[in-house]
Specification:
Length: about 800
């Protein structure tokens, strides 16, 4: 599920090798506690870099690995080596900024080259800025057809000695790439800075004494030497190693990262660079919190609050529980391959409640955490679905330790690779594991149902009366995904009910156990395993519905002759004999069940969606902007298939500019396969969801209208039946990459996101901002030819 993408690049790769999932472990620079704060611009030049450069050059998907989000990334420079090379047969050397090498000379030994030095003439950076200024784009028009803006394009990554040939061969290859010229003031600042060899600004910012005290208390808790505390700390670390930790009650945008350090509290941190969080640290270590030194990017920003209240919660969940251990489990690939076994000494209820306490954070970590470019398992999930969680008291893995112990041996994840051959674990997982677990779970829950009459609404976690994370909506937007609290949009085609074993395995499959530098076997099996996990969540949901509806509903999700063959291989027959404990009152049980869940603790989340899902008295009034946008959500929606995955609509009123997100929900006959997604698309059943505000890290296009023209915009979109019709909407209301207002528009959009939630906001990414054309060649090629990343 996981901000998760797969495409097939046979047409682009000469060896036609398979590309699998590409997910990443996010690198962030570790600095001493007394050093720089984070996120806030360190200077005027960093502010310009953030708004004009980091929007493309900020993560592993940064072209040529040139990260401009921190001084360390600038000094490291660029590389011709791709992070995303899923055809590789061997694991690649890791290039995590601030972790795998610390100085420019160390990076030079890893084949990174400077882009800011001007020893023998203008630097690479200066030349690219000047070339970008000379691009002869027609403002407001589509880009030249010869200019490839696909995120899958091959980057040249010229070294200083190659710049002349590069600019001769790529006259439109200046920076910023394929956009309108920068505003004059920004361009002059960047050019002057580049001509001066781009001096970094590393002015330290001293943390408040109260923050240092809180950090020392957190580190003291995590470094407790007792065995019980050590296992607890390891469990917490393996689940928070990618978190952007924010101190409780701190109103500043200061975030921290949890690391394993060779040095204790009070000394400069010295991070142990391990491939995965459960790898052997190689000796004694200490858990440390270090400030984030990079610009905060929305696509990797996963916020987790920590402080005194959180420590008390840890004590209550873990240390006050009645359990003991005689020895700590080993660090190994096996530990990540079966976390339910590694941490079996900790009560399952404590572990599950830990996950539920911050369910949005953990589901968001599936999406944002390990990735920056495409997401593992994006095409393994539906375009929009709702997520709930099994209540701990209804979860046999929590209430019956014998059940969990019986399940553990068959709940291994496919992480290991032995001597270049497919591991025994992989063989077991591909042939036996999922079916064995389905059989075990189905038989044991059927026995429970025979005693209690079947699952009811009370078996769905209600958020303990105060947690809005109990209801979530996941959006898949072709090459990315997002999650928001509450149930957004119309009643979806599918829904998941996640229990403890499923929650833990998704996390270790997509986050803790995923290696962006891993080989093709690792990346492919991650995707295949996620297919089984999706099916598990769907089957859990079906158990709450009437028996006679389960098979037909399941078949509607998995249409096509090939799917039935796959089901015979990796699926056990659905349980259609065990009853549900719910007495349904309508002829639409799926909708009734899902919407009734919102009536449980209705003060926590909206019961209706006034734009997309409402009844009389609940819908947005027709004289409001929201009410005038409602017709876009009606079905059928023959116009929807022409729209980008994520479009933003800016509505200018007398008082403000309101921002809405237009979500293209794509229909599929099934999402059961990695390849050839276009063969399973059902565009005539596509639809549109309209939400106030923003949630996606990747805007694909922006429309701008006045309040008075909202109805005209809606009518124009609803009249679209061809690409030519859509282009008329673009010309009338759209802001192209070459539009003179492109950068000011982007500033407005970013300011809107920042205003939504200061702590949760981060810099948007424009690598996927589209350029609509009559035949849309790049977008069509990008979207429908390729099914695997």
């Amino acid at each position: 599920m996981i901000e998760i993408c797969f495409r097939h690049l046979n047409a682009l790769l000469p060896n036609s090798r398979l590309l699998a999932v590409v997910l990443m472990v996010i690198p962030l620079t570790a600095v001493p506690l007394q050093a720089q704060q984070t996120n806030a611009p360190r200077s005027a030049i960093q502010d310009v870099l953030n708004k004009r450069c980091v929007v493309c050059h900020g993560c592993y998907d940064a072209p040529c690995q040139l990260k401009l989000s921190s001084p360390d990334g600038l000094s490291r420079g660029a590389s011709k080596t791709k992070v995303y090379d899923s055809a590789r047969l061997d694991d690649a050397p890791m290039t995590r900024l601030g972790i795998d090498a610390k100085t420019a000379p160390e990076w030079r030994q890893r084949d990174f080259f400077a882009v800011t030095e001007s020893n023998n003439g203008p630097s690479v950076l200066e030349q690219l800025l000047r070339a970008g200024r000379n691009n002869d784009f027609k403002l407001g028009a589509a880009l030249p057809d010869r200019l490839n803006i696909s995120p899958l394009r091959k980057n040249s990554c010229p070294m200083p000695s190659e710049m002349g040939d590069y600019l001769d061969d790529h006259p439109l290859g200046g920076m910023p790439f394929a956009t309108a010229p920068l505003p004059d003031a920004d361009y002059q600042k960047l050019l002057s800075w580049a001509k001066a060899d781009a001096p970094p600004d590393e002015t330290p910012t001293v943390l408040p004494e109260t923050s240092i005290e809180h950090i020392e208390k957190i580190e003291t808790f995590l470094n407790n030497g007792q065995l019980k505390a050590k296992l607890t700390a390891r469990y917490i670390y393996e689940h928070l190693f990618l978190a952007h930790l924010h101190l409780e009650d701190d109103t500043s945008r200061t975030f921290f990262r949890l690391i394993r350090s060779r040095t204790p509290t009070g000394e400069p941190p010295d991070e142990i660079a391990s491939r995965r969080p459960f790898d052997d640290p190689g000796g004694d270590f200490f858990y440390r919190l270090v400030p984030l030194g990079d610009t905060i990017l929305h696509k990797e920003h996963i916020v987790y609050e920590i402080g005194p209240k959180r420590l008390e919660r840890y004590k209550s969940l873990f240390l006050a529980s009645d359990w003991e251990i005689d020895a700590l489990p080993h660090y190994s690939i096996d530990a990540g391959g079966n976390p339910l076994s590694t941490f079996r000494a900790i009560p399952a209820r404590s572990r599950y409640q830990f996950l539920l306490d911050d369910a949005l954070y953990f589901v968001r970590s599936f999406i944002r955490g390990p990735v920056c470019y495409g997401q593992v398992a994006v095409n393994v999930i539906e375009d929009r679905f709702w997520v709930t969680f099994l209540a701990p008291d209804a979860d046999l893995s929590v209430t019956d330790n014998a059940y969990l112990e019986e399940a553990i041996p068959i709940l291994e994840l496919p992480l290991a690779k032995v001597e270049g051959k497919i591991s025994n674990r992989l063989k077991s997982f591909l042939t036996l594991g999922p079916i064995k677990y389905q059989e075990l779970r189905q038989s044991r829950y059927a026995a429970e149902t025979a005693q209690n009459g079947g699952p009811t609404y009370q078996d769905i976690w209600d958020g303990d009366g105060n947690n809005i994370d109990a209801r979530l909506t996941v959006f898949r937007n072709f090459s990315s995904a997002s999650v928001v609290p509450g149930f957004s949009g119309a009643v979806p085609e599918t829904a998941w009910v996640i229990d403890f074993p499923l929650f833990e395995r998704i996390y270790y499959n997509l986050v803790a156990g995923f290696d962006v530098f891993g080989n093709v076997e690792h990346q492919l099996t991650t995707r295949i395993y996620m297919d089984s996990l999706r099916r598990e969540g769907e089957r859990n949901f079906l158990a709450f519905l009437p028996r006679d509806l389960r098979d037909p509903l399941h078949e509607s999700w998995y249409q096509g002759p090939l799917v039935s063959l796959v089901d015979r291989w990796k699926e056990r027959k659905l349980d259609t004999s065990s009853p549900t404990g719910i007495r349904f009152q309508t002829g639409q049980p799926k909708s009734e069940f899902l919407t009734e869940l919102l009536q449980i603790e209705p003060r926590l989340w909206p019961v209706s969606d006034p734009i997309n899902r409402c009844s009389a008295g609940q819908c947005a009034a027709t004289d409001t902007i929201e009410g005038r946008l409602r017709p876009l959500t009606a079905t059928p929606a023959p116009f929807a298939k022409f729209l980008p995955d994520i479009a933003l609509l800016l509505v200018k009123t007398d008082a403000e500019t309101k921002i809405f997100t237009l979500v293209h929900d794509k229909a599929h006959s099934n999402v059961a396969f990695i390849f050839n997604e276009d063969l399973r698309r059902d565009p005539e059943n596509d639809s549109l969801t309209v939400l106030p505000g923003q949630f996606s890290s990747y805007p694909n296009f922006v429309f701008k209208v006045s309040d008075a023209n909202v109805a005209a915009f809606v009518d124009a979109v609803r009249d679209v039946r061809t690409q030519k019709d859509y282009l008329r909407v673009v010309e009338q209301f759209g802001i192209r990459r070459t539009d003179p207002s492109f950068w000011s528009m982007l500033d407005l959009v970013q300011a809107g996101l920042d205003a939504q939630d200061t702590i949760q906001a981060g810099l948007l990414d424009i690598n996927r901002y589209r350029d609509p054309k009559p035949l849309d060649p790049i977008e069509r090629l990008f979207e429908y030819t390729f099914s695997v990343d």
